[in-house]
Structure formats: structure tokens, C-alpha cells
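User: Show me a protein chain along with its predicted structure.
Assistant: Here is one chain, sequence first, then C-alpha cells.
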Amino acid sequence: MTSDGQPKISSRILKQFLCSDQFFGLRQVPVSLKSITEALAARGATQSGGGVTGCSASLASTGGKAARLEALNKDHVQNCQQCRLCEGRNNTVFGAGSPDARLVFVGEGPGFHEDRQGLPFVGKSGDLLTRMIGAMGLSREEVFICNIVKCRPPNNRDPQADEVVACSPYLYEQLRIIDPEVIVTLGAPAAKTLLETSDGIGRLRGQFHEFTLSFPDGTSKTIDLLPTYHPAYLLRSPQDKGKAWTDLQMVMKRMGLPLPDQSK
């Protein structure tokens, strides 16, 4: 135990996170920021502004956070036909975890296994993310995990700009409901979309950024956002796992979580 009564994290957990060299592939080619901006302009929208059309007000009257997330999923996401991705899906992948999460992980989109199970980050990539979360002294049930797009792009291709624009309002609504302290984006596409930047992951990771989330009433909130590598990338590039762990320790410090006891 630490001096404030919190559990120390065993180095065995860290080794489980840092030792895998398997590959499970979600491609990590960035979505063009210009194409997203053009698509947003065509729809007269902003990425972080407003809410899902017609649903922000109705969700506000559905009760607590869990009930509001369930309503968003059942009444809007599961039946969504806002873009072509709905044509080939088996399941929408809304997200999973605690509605009261202090920490939210955001990836790019579902892959094959996620589409089959309707759950985010499963398979080998999900196993690694689970170990990464465990290394922080947390569990998947204590955080919230989701993606920018809720349907699998065909053959795991990158989401196209109009698909990101059509689906990202669901993500922003999730963030409004959960109201996390910190967001960790996994991979360049998620970071570029939320931060509205063309910078690569190498320039973005290793530091906190300010993500401004807008609300339908005109108010806004700034949330700490830290980009890091996608688990799929780490599985094929294990030499960068140490950098990812450095990123996660920055999040732990920001959240006041105990750092691991390096003596064990």
C-alpha cells in the first residue's frame, strides 16, 4: 500500500503490458483533416459543437448517466443510418465501461471481432489495452472505451471524412454525458479528429492537449487529452511500448493515481 492507503502496482502487471509482440491489425492511416473540415462545412456543423440532432434535449430528461447512455445507444446509435457504414455492419459498437468514468479511451473504429461481438477493443488488440489499463491500477469496468465511428469500415479500411462527420456527434454526446477528467486517444486518427489537427502522433503524444467540448446551450468545457499509440500499432512495434507507458504514467499523475513500485 502507498502512504495514502492506495494499492501499489506490481511490476509483473507492467511486464504483461510491455512484453507482447503479436500483431492484430487496425490500420492507422490518418483521416485527412482538410477533408473532415470540408465535410463539416458542407453540413454546417462543427465537430465539438451542438449535439446529436434532436437527442440532446431528450437525453437530458432520461435520468442518470447510465440511463442517458443507454438511451443514446438504443434510440440513436443502434438504428443509425447516417452513413454507408451501416450497410455492412453486424453490430454497432457503442462503447463499454463505467458511465461515471474519470478516464475515457477513444480509438478509431471497430474491427472484425468488435463488429461480431458489439464490444470495443476485443481480440489481441483489446487484450493489450486491458493490460495497459491494468498497469495503471484500473480495470476496464472503471474506465470507458469507445471509438469515433460506431460501425466497422469494410475490410478495416480507414473511416472516410463524411463517415467521421456523421458518427462523431455520438462520441461528443457520450463525452458530455460521462464528463471525464481525462481523455486518452489511441492512435493518430482519433487524436487528429478530436484535436482538429494534422500533426502526426509522434508530435502529439507525450504531452497534454486541451480538448474543448461544446454544449447545445452555448457553454463549453475544456478536458485534458493525451494522445498515445494504438494497441494495434504497439503489437507490431513493441519498441514503442515504453513510450506508451510513459504517456500512461502522465495520465496517472494527472489523475492522482499511484505510480508503480519500481523496486518489485
